[in-house]
Structure formats: C-alpha cells, structure tokens
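1st attempt posting a full record on here, be nice pls
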Amino acid sequence: MLLHVVHETRYEYSPAVKTAQHMAHLKPLHNEHQQVLSHQLAVEPTPAQQTEAVDVYGNTRAFFSLQVRHDELVIVATSLVRTSPPPVVQCDMSWEEVRERLRYHRGAAYDPAAEFCFASPYVPRHENFVTYAMPSFTPERSIMEAARDLMHRIHVEFAYETEATDVSTPALEALELRKGVCQDFAHVMLACLRSLGLPARYVSGYLLTEPPPGKPRLVGADASHAWVSIYLPRDGGPGEWTDLDPTNDRAPSEDYVTLALGRDYADVSPVRGVIHGGANHKLDVGVTVTPVDASHAAS
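the predicted structure (as tokens):
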C-alpha cells in the first residue's frame, strides 16, 4: 500500500518565545516491510540550524534551533511510504520459556532484546500489572496466545477517552482508571509484559485515516497512534518482533505506518524541546494518512 502522511504540529505561545531548541521523531522507519520513498520536514519560522541523526533504536531524530523571537511554531512532516503486510509469525513457545531465555544466566549468550524487559520512565514493573496479566498468562500457555488474550482484554476492559489522561499519566494510574488513549493502552500492556519478565517495546506511528469501503474506521486514525511489539526467541538464531495493537484489538498490517520505536513514549515523542519564553502555549496536532494511486505517484 502506498500511503501519503502529513503530520502538522502547531504551537501558539504567549508571551513570545525568544529562543528554542527542539528534537522531533517525525520520519517513518525504513525497513523490509516499510519503505520511505520521500520525506520532508518543514519548520516555520526557519531554523537557524537543522540536522538529522539516527538513535540507538534506529529511529531518525531531527534537531533544529530557533534564534528568532516567535509567537507561533509550525512543524509539518510530509512522507510517502510504501507498506506491505508483515509475515504471520508463529511461536508455540510458552511464555515461561520465553521469560527464562531472556533471564540473565552466567555464561549465557546475550540477547539484545533483554534490554526491553526492564522498567523505563513511563513503564514501571509492578505487582499490580502482574495481577492484571495473570488471567491471560496461565501456566504453559504459548506466548502468542497469552499476549493476544492480554491485548483483547485491554481492548474490552479499558474505555477510550481522550480527556481521561494526558501524556504524563503514569501507567499505574491508567491501569486503575481503566481508561485513556492509545498511549495508555500501550504502556499498560508493556508494563504487564515486562513485569512478567517478557521483552516488549513501544511503537509509535499512524493509521490509515479513512479505511477502504466496508472496513471499520480504526480508533486513533486522525492522530499519532501507539501500539506494542513483543519479542519471540528462536532456536539457533535471533528472534523476531511482532506487533499487537490493544486499542483496536488486532495485529497491525499495511494500513499502519511505523514512525519510531523505543522503551516507551519518552523515547519517541513526536516533538519536544527547551524554550526561552512562552510561559503559556496552545498545541494543535493533525495527522492525515491517505492512500496514493501508484501510477499517480510515479508520475
């Protein structure tokens, strides 16, 4: 599927900002299932300096500085991305075996995925998450069956309410509230998995804004989205990551665009920065993801 993505971020400041330094994760990942054909990041006012770098997780981060006084900042990221359905991943390994494989043992081979078993700024390891997860993680159940069941329970038992939480809401609070947005659902699922000793990472991205005829419109389709990627070890080689979306109770496919991945939202926030001035601000964000006819794109 060929997708055109426009992500616009607009800040209005009062009083005006004198100087600012910003970092943005707004360029989609390029990998075997997703190819970035073009990408442009436009910033107004024009930055004094703008650079790109790749972080430890493979995400592209843009850095820009503003040395002029401004009461409005507009950031527009435009991307053309070709997506394909990821392969169906099968894993009959029990979740207990996965946990044991990622547990530290003296002399054992190091698996980089073990880094995603630990707590992170937005995702603590806590007994409350273990308690919530255990009905899904029954003894000897396969890791995929258990993870899908946990995803389904979060989808059914949590209410999607945009005003219930904000970007700083702790995962424990979202678990207690049983409500929130895609970020909260992803953080809760991550916390459940990691509290059981299972590696899982946070994925940010987008959904197709308007689905094909006859298909339901997915929750979160008009904004940035977030979901979870779980790790499946393999015998005699590196394991595989497979994605699950608790907000929509499904595995992401070609109608999803992966933007960035990390331990939690703190690693991949779309825009963050340090400003001098602008004590009060208003933020508006809009995302549009539309399919593009391949012949039209080629012309």
